[in-house]
Write a structure and sequence with these properties.
By secondary structure, this protein is an all-alpha fold. 10% of the residues are buried. Helices cover 80% and strands 0% of the residues. It folds into 2 domains: 5-69 and 200-235, no CATH class; 100-194, no CATH class. It is rod-shaped.
């Protein structure tokens, strides 16, 4: 059986109180005060922890976590927006990402047939169209499709890798409202997700996060309470 630290602390303190009746005089007082103060410390801390999450009638300040539900949601939003998704951080992110942009793979997979078709149409409709018609017309140009696509790809890749193109791209991205738009989108997502939270969900979330640590408050409440009781037994 898995016994909680809270139960063990209270049980040990209660056992000390009961055992005190088996002794006499000074030893009885020593054990009794130690047990009573330990039990008082552990139970008081246990009640304080309970009051964090549950509303107790006529006890002002109890149920503080559910009561501050809206403030809790607002603090989460402010934390995320002010610490993780600031304008400066997003600007730095995009500035670093700009250096990693490589358009060559995209260009390699791009189909340049529409460009060749447009060129063919322009040539055939020009004054050279009649001359080409004497030698096969469009079929003659069709033989150039593959070599045209290869050359246009190489030309576009060369342009994309040029300093002038990259400087223009960097300048455009720095002057764009991309990071501002993203901040707005992120804020909308956070608002939507926080809007789905209920006071019960928040209470359970926080309780799950800190329950293990809060139980130590009960243990140390019992320990320090017992020590105070032990010292008090010599003074009273």
């Amino acid at each position: 059986m898995n016994l909680s630290k809270t139960f063990l602390t209270n049980a040990i303190a209660l056992i000390l109180v009961l055992f005190s009746f088996l002794f006499e005089n000074t030893l009885s007082s020593l054990v009794l005060y130690t047990g009573l103060f330990a039990l008082s410390g552990s139970v008081t801390n246990q009640l304080a922890i309970y009051m964090l999450f549950e509303k107790v009638p006529y006890l002002y300040g109890s149920g503080i976590i559910p009561a501050q539900f809206e403030a809790f949601k607002e603090s989460i939003k402010n934390l995320m927006m002010n610490q993780f998704f600031t304008q400066e951080q997003l600007d730095n992110f995009f500035k670093n990402e700009e250096k990693k942009i490589d358009l060559a793979p995209i260009i390699e997979e791009t189909d340049f047939s529409p460009a060749f078709d447009a060129l063919s149409k322009t040539v055939l409709e020009s004054s050279f169209g009649g001359m080409l018609g004497m030698f096969g017309g469009a079929s003659i140009l069709e033989n150039l499709r593959e070599s045209f696509s290869l050359k246009i790809k190489n030309a576009v890749i060369a342009i994309a890798n040029s300093d002038s193109f990259n400087n223009t791209l960097q300048k455009h991205m720095q002057n764009s409202s991309l990071s501002s738009d993203m901040i707005g989108s992120i804020e909308n997502v956070i608002d939507a997700r926080l809007g789905e939270l209920t006071p019960l969900m928040v209470k359970e979330m926080i309780h799950k996060l800190i329950n293990e640590h809060l139980s130590w408050l009960v243990v140390w409440g019992g320990v320090f309470g017992g020590l105070i009781g032990l010292v008090s037994s010599f003074l009273l």
